[in-house]
Specification:
Layout: E1 5-11, E2 15-22, E3 34-36, H1 43-61, E4 68-75, H2 103-111, E5 115-119, H3 120-133, E6 141-146, E7 150-156, E8 159-160, H4 205-219, H5 230-234, H6 237-242, H7 246-270, E9 274-278, H8 286-298, H9 305-308, E10 312-314, H10 321-342
Parallel strand pairs: 1-4, 4-5, 6-9, 9-10
Antiparallel strand pairs: 1-2, 2-3, 6-7, 7-8
Helix pairs in contact: 1-2, 3-10, 4-7, 7-8
Bound molecules: zinc ion.
Length: 347
């Protein structure tokens, strides 16, 4: 008997992370399984790395590559809905050959197996959603993934909103009424996209480095982080906040309140079953995470009674979320193909 499995491949800036999903819905790799991505060396080298790592991962999972019937691939954007990377390049794909590169097609061609593409935020959102509701549910959820930037995804009635150009669920660039956040009078939160007041400009590692930390250090020049290079300092904010540093905790409060304002907008658009948070920012102690979730709630404007009960969840197995979400998308592709085979052709 042959076992049919699908693979999830999560390509990040420096590493590829893998998982496999079998027909019973079990992930064959529970923890993080990584292989160097070498994306800096360009697409040719990187695609080879992906395939080499996939074989090692299959070995690790006790599976055969020949059993893989579909692959889900996710990468950081910007990219089209079908996995054509931006012609203008991006932070994670700096080699010039990446510009306009069709990474989905390239991997599909080399593996000779169907490959489906998602951006990394949407993939993580997909896993967050399924971990709560299962893969057959028609629930609606909004996921915000707080990392270097702010990614995420919107899932309505069980489907990821990809959009016409693949920019569906670009939650980081939704502007929020940030003037409602206390304690940041005078701050003009500039976003990398050129606009002011995007969620990412107030809730991400980039927000800390570019906007929040400089703003608060100006008022507290005696803070130890003031002596450090700003990029190095920004990476220490979470650790210091966990340990009770007032200024750093204040930065996390502002991020949480920004997320609260954003979730309030989403609640009124989608009336979701759940709000979901993930990403490096909340890979932290349970106490700090609980405090952060409480602060998100506190940052929301007053809610109607029906809205107050919408839960805020944290994505489980956060570092494997992208690979798991990509595998789920591959499973969906397999199911849709089987479904279409059974349907008679429309006249
Ligand atoms: Zn923006």
């Amino acid at each position: 008997m042959t076992m049919r499995i699908v693979a999830g491949v999560d390509l990040g800036g420096t590493a590829v992370n893998y998982t496999f999903l079998d027909e019973s819905g079990q992930f064959l790799i529970k923890e993080l399984f990584e292989h160097p991505a070498r994306s800096i060396d360009g697409p040719e080298v990187c695609i080879n790395q992906i395939i080499q790592g996939l074989a090692l991962a299959a070995d690790h999972a006790g599976a055969q590559l020949t059993d893989v019937v579909a692959v889900g691939l996710d990468t950081p954007g910007p990219a089209s809905a079908n996995g054509v990377l931006s012609s203008k390049g991006s932070t994670n794909f700096v080699h010039s050959n990446w510009a306009g590169f069709d990474i989905r097609e390239a991997l599909e061609h080399q593996l000779d197996t169907p490959v489906v593409y998602l951006n990394d935020g949407n993939a993580a959102a997909s896993w967050g959603h399924v971990s709560l509701f299962g893969s057959q549910s028609h629930a609606t959820s909004i996921s915000a993934i707080i990392g270097t930037g702010l990614g995420g995804g919107v899932i309505t009635s069980g489907d990821v909103v990809v959009g016409r150009h693949g920019f569906g669920g670009e939650l980081g660039h939704v502007t929020i009424p940030f003037h409602h956040i206390e304690g940041i009078d005078g701050l003009e939160p500039r976003c990398n996209c050129g606009r002011v007041g995007c969620l990412e400009s107030l809730c991400s590692l980039t927000a800390i480095r570019k906007n929040l930390l400089p703003f608060f250090l100006k008022q507290h020049a005696d803070h130890p982080l003031a002596k450090e290079e700003i990029g190095t300092a920004a990476k220490q904010v979470r650790g210091l906040a966990e340990n009770g540093d007032t200024l750093c905790k204040e930065i996390f409060r502002v991020q949480a309140h920004a997320l609260g304002l954003f979730f309030d907008e989403m609640i009124n658009v989608f009336d979701p079953d759940a709000l979901i948070v993930g990403g490096g920012a909340i890979e932290t102690t349970n106490d700090f995470r609980d405090w952060f979730i409480d602060q998100i709630r506190l940052g929301m404007p007053p809610q109607r009674d029906e809205q107050k009960s919408i839960p805020i969840h944290v994505i489980p197995n956060g570092d494997t979320a992208g690979a798991r979400g990509a595998a789920l998308e591959a499973a969906k592709l397999v199911r849709s193909k089987e479904h279409s085979v059974r349907q008679p052709d429309q006249e």
